[in-house]
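Protocol check, entry for the methods section draft. Step 1: assemble the input record (protein sequence plus ligand SMILES). Step 2: submit for complex structure prediction. Step 3: store the structure tokens unaltered in the notebook. Ligand used here: zinc ion. Step 1 record:
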Amino acid sequence: MKSEMQYSRIADKIRSAEMILIGIGEEFRPGLPNPGLAAEAAPYAAWEYYRSLPDEDKVIRAYKALRKLAGAKPYFVVTLNTDDLVFRGGFERDLVVAPCGSMEKMQCEEHITEAGPICEKILEEIRKLPEEKQKDGAAAAEVLKKYAVCPLCGKPLHFHVKSEEGYLESGYLDQWQNYNRWLSCTLNRKLCILELGVGFEYPQVIRWPFEKAAYFNQKAELIRVHSRLWQVTSELKERGISVESAPVDFLLSEE
Ligand SMILES: [Zn+2]
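Step 3, stored output:
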């Protein structure tokens, strides 16, 4: 079914649910422009891009539309994304878990620290270089060696994200426990499970457990929105709904 037709049907399902579990995946990421800097500096440029996205950006608008849709219902959000843009939609910090990390944070081998001031300094130093040097990997690496260092122990820092080697899982575990506690309260409740643009990057985080949660709770419904991977397992029968759409476009289809 076309997404415009399905939007109101799904909005009704959310309104009639008691609790809402939201999963956010790869398709919710904003596309990154070419930073015009060396590859070594690209993650810092991405950090800056995410932070400077205007309210009119469609990803931000989609997050706001999603927050509005959830309304006053008890909700929990699990996101695969590390851009922290979900908070721009007005979701509460203690009701979101990001198991793949957060670009608001950096880490060494053992400490997690705020990314903001460090990233700003690194970008400032790289942009002070002559233009051809800004695209030079060795020059960028020199800047990183000097400024991407842990304020506690002096060891090299990188973003606190799962794709980096040595990712400190401890960063999200407390929140993961809160999520599991919340999830245990959904049993026998009318639960709406809304999965938005989640593919197979880390299926063990959202895709598979959401199917399982829907399967074991007879009152649950799973709504899967994805431009390509929208199929829902036949075991869920009529409690599984597929929407063939990119999630951002789907959420903005009422605008
Ligand atoms: Zn350290």
